[in-house]
């Protein structure tokens, strides 16, 4: 496999070159803003700072991919997103339901399995992420945890974001810039909302933060 092969997967990109997707590149700054806000909201909380670092990794990987437009850049972009999703899935049962860490981490391979199962339908990482947000929302609503609303909002925003991603190349004739840049902007909001929810939940139950490394 040629890892340096050119990737033209977006309406905005017309040819190879570092500045072939200016809107897609500049709007990646939304991830950097989200990372900064999450770091600030963490207020020294180790777990929150790690979430901020993972969002920062998404910013770097996505920016590089939309600059170089190569196969290795695409893998780096997807890998950064996957790391955030797997980490969040692993920590969700612990932080919101007090599940011991020795069991909570199993949510990560469960999410990976869901990703493989939906791959045949072209879902990639994104359909499982949408399903995950729906599951989190329902689970918290059933438990009467007020944080369910955070995930309901995040799920609605992500569904809209996914729609913009899907129609990017469809609208090229009428909107040459495409809509992928909206995917960046809305996803940055989603990452902030879910990270802020976990930080706030942990702040109300500080023993969960300490227990992460001791279970």
Can you describe this structure?
Keywords: Membrane, Transmembrane, Transmembrane helix. This is Ceramidase. The chain crosses the membrane at residues 26-43, 50-68, 74-91, 103-120, 148-166, 181-200. This protein is mainly α and 215 residues long. The chain has one domain (22-211). Helix content is 71%, strand content 0%. The protein is built from ten helices and no strands. It has helices at residues 22-26, 29-42, 46-68, 71-97, 101-104, 107-118, 126-142, 148-166, 180-204, 206-211. Helix 3 runs antiparallel to helix 4. The model has no long low-confidence stretch (mean pLDDT 92).
Write the layout of secondary structure elements.
Blueprint: H1 22-26, H2 29-42, H3 46-68, H4 71-97, H5 101-104, H6 107-118, H7 126-142, H8 148-166, H9 180-204, H10 206-211
Low-confidence stretches: none
Taken as a percent bin, the fraction of beta residues is: under 5%
In whole angstroms, the N-to-C terminal distance is 42 Å
Overall tally of structural domains: 1
Q: SS-based structural class? A: mainly alpha
User: What would the average pLDDT be, to the nearest integer?
Assistant: 92
User: How much helicity do the residues have?
Assistant: over 70%
* H and E order: HHHHHHHHHH
